[in-house]
Design goal:
The complex is a heterodimer of chains A (202) and B (173). Chain A is of the alpha/beta class and 202 residues long. The termini of chain A are far apart. Chain A contains five helices and nine strands. Chain B is α/β, with parallel strands linked by helices and 173 residues long. In chain B, 38% of the residues lie in helices and 10% in strands. Chain B contains seven helices and four strands, in the order αβαβαβαβααα. The chains are: A alpha/beta (202), B alpha/beta (173).
């Protein structure tokens, strides 16, 4: 079954859940309401043959509402078909349904999204941080979290300090704008190069 | 030869006795059998392994006995990026090493955070433990590590541990 046919089957079975549809260079994307994602995923796995969940990722549309978006990449081993599902998550709720009971591999993907983006997954069997340590108070991949970090202290576990960036080349601006606004090299294209401060020989 | 020598020199035992200071002898022993604690955290650890292997052969400098128990180590070679999550474990292993102990910060990341100016990376292991030798490079070549090791040996040769600790005894003698 091709991705388009699968998308059509989903739209036919869940007409109220599908809010948008997009095809770009042969990649099919379906936008769904967050409440229906579990039924749609179960239907896609059991009836449409999408037996492999490649990845779950999250997007921070900082400044927009709903702020977050969870992206599910589905793959069918038998048909070689790839389907992408997207659900919106508002900043107030900050919660999405889990799909760990449908694809067990979703367990760590969802933990990573919880750790880095702060979106909780309802009924997840083991929702702990996966990269940062328990007790770290922030979610570092959010657009409004500075690259240099914020000070924190979890006694006996870890602490963090603010890293000196010194006008370094990777300082982005928390915005949903274009590359010209966001990226430091594009932003400072017309300006004279920033001189690093060197410590003099004693 | 002469029976009336004022310092009782006996040529029969010439070559078997060396007169030196306790400090110098101990420093010589310490500096030529440094047992490293390989704290390999990133790509620098690959260069550390290369330094230990046949081509560069760190055993030429007496530091080939890589100990994975901190209790048997003399020098901690911090080779790689120290994340905050790992930092307190490095500190804990350092605390378990018996004195006297030394530390080599191998590479840009261990020395200063390197290119990782980020929320996740400790900006230099010297924020947590005292460092004796910093080695530049990303990663440093094995020769650079050997050079750092020789610098550390030179530093150890200049220490006065016994003279400082046993001052009263030396004065009495």
């Amino acid at each position: 079954m091709s991705p388009s046919a699968a998308a059509a089957r989903i739209a036919e079975k869940f007409p109220s859940a599908v809010t948008g549809e997009n095809e770009f260079r042969g990649e099919k994307t379906l936008r769904l309401g967050a409440a229906a994602i579990r039924e749609v995923c179960r239907f896609a796995k059991e009836s449409l043959g999408f037996d492999y969940l490649i990845d779950i990722s999250s997007v921070d549309h900082f400044g927009d509402e709903p702020r977050f978006e969870i992206v599910y990449e589905l793959y069918s081993m038998a048909n070689g078909a790839h389907l992408r599902l997207k659900i919106p998550v508002s900043e107030d709720a900050c919660e999405a349904p889990t799909v760990t009971d449908i694809w067990p591999t979703a367990n760590w993907h969802e933990r990573e999204i919880f750790d880095m983006m702060g979106v909780r997954f309802k009924d997840h069997p083991d929702l702990r941080r996966i990269l940062m340590w328990e007790g770290y108070p922030y979610h570092p991949l959010r657009k409004d979290f500075p690259l240099e970090g914020k000070p924190s202290d979890a006694p006996g576990l870890a602490f963090t300090e603010v890293a000196p960036l010194a006008g370094g080349p990777f300082v982005t601006v928390p915005t949903d704008g274009t590359t010209q606004v966001r990226e430091p090299r594009a932003r400072h294209a017309g300006e004279p190069p920033h001189a690093e401060k060197f410590i003099e020989e004693p | 030869m002469s029976a009336v020598s004022p310092i009782a020199y006996d040529s029969k035992i010439e070559g078997n006795i060396i007169i030196t200071k306790v400090d110098a002898a101990i420093n010589w022993m310490r500096s030529n059998s440094l047992w490293p604690m390989p704290m390999g955290l990133a790509c620098c650890a690959i260069e550390l392994m290369a330094a230990g292997a046949a081509r560069y052969d760190i055993s030429r400098f007496g530091a080939e006995v890589m100990r994975f128990s901190p209790r048997q180590s003399d020098v901690m070679i911090v080779a790689g990026t120290v994340t905050y999550k790992m930092a307190l474990s490095v500190k804990r292993i350092w605390d378990q090493m018996p004195e006297p102990k030394w530390c080599i910060a191998m590479g840009a990341c261990a020395s200063s955070g390197g290119m990782y100016r980020s929320y996740a990376v400790l900006q230099g292991i010297d924020h947590l433990i005292p460092v004796d030798v910093y080695i530049s490079g990303c990663p440093p070549r094995p020769e650079a590590l050997l050079d750092g090791l020789m610098k550390l040996q030179k530093k150890i040769m200049g220490e006065h541990a016994i003279a400082d600790q046993k001052k009263a005894l030396f004065q009495k003698v």
